[in-house]
Amino acid sequence: MNVVRHIEELEPATRGIAIGTFDGVHRGHRAVIDAARAPGLRHTVLTFDPHPRMTLGKSVAMLGTLERRLELLAGLGVEDVVVLHFDEQLAELSAEDFAASVFRGAGAEVIAAGEDFVFGAGRKGNLDLLEGLGFAVRRVPLVDDCSSTRIRSLLADGEVVEAAALLGRPAEIEGMVELGDQRGGTLGFPTANLAVPPGLLVPRHGIYAGSALGHRAALSIGTNPHYGGTEQRIEAFLLDYDGDLYGKRLVVELWERLRDEAAFESEAALVAAIASDVERTRAASRPG
Hints:
The chain has 288 residues and is an alpha/beta fold. It has 10 helices and 14 strands. Helices cover 29% and strands 28% of the residues.
């Protein structure tokens, strides 16, 4: 898959373009991406970084990093991806100028987008405008109440199975493995401490079953209340894994929320609870 940051970097071609932020690359996004496929046209995705709402002064907890978004798009067989930097200059382009410089500049013949897609300064551009300009527009209706906003809400409540149904795959959390408190090793369950990138959504605190690197993983998201912690920590114990993860990027799938985090009456009780979490993780089923 070819990834560029500017329209001018694309090889000349006639294209079917899917446009959107595609945060999470969920089932609705995939319907838009599939709609842009057409015989003889180069299958292209046009996406934005940062999220347009951030540039417009609104807060958005992202479902995934740009790196992960590109990995998921590559898995869909997309040929080209344009990652446009959404800054104030781009936000101030009129809809007509955006269509001319971006869509015409990219060689778009077919444009696929959600049926409520708007663009350009003041959000004045829509799919009707694009049709009037001569593009073949493919309008994609909402898929089963599937939206990034809905998925964010589910994950904030820890509803990872329901989120997976909308994503079409398990929800994920990712980060670089860094040095943590190193208590897990002394308890018999060495964990990888994840530094999650700023702006990335962190699901509701609790203990989860999931997987990473082809191994089942028990994941703790929270503040380690048993030890009186106050800072958020995200710690993954990879079952039957033997290797050094420090400094590596780790993507952890979330399969099932097992329980709330808790303080225990003794360290022995904590170890027993973790052992139970591990056994439940072995028995968990992958959703999606």
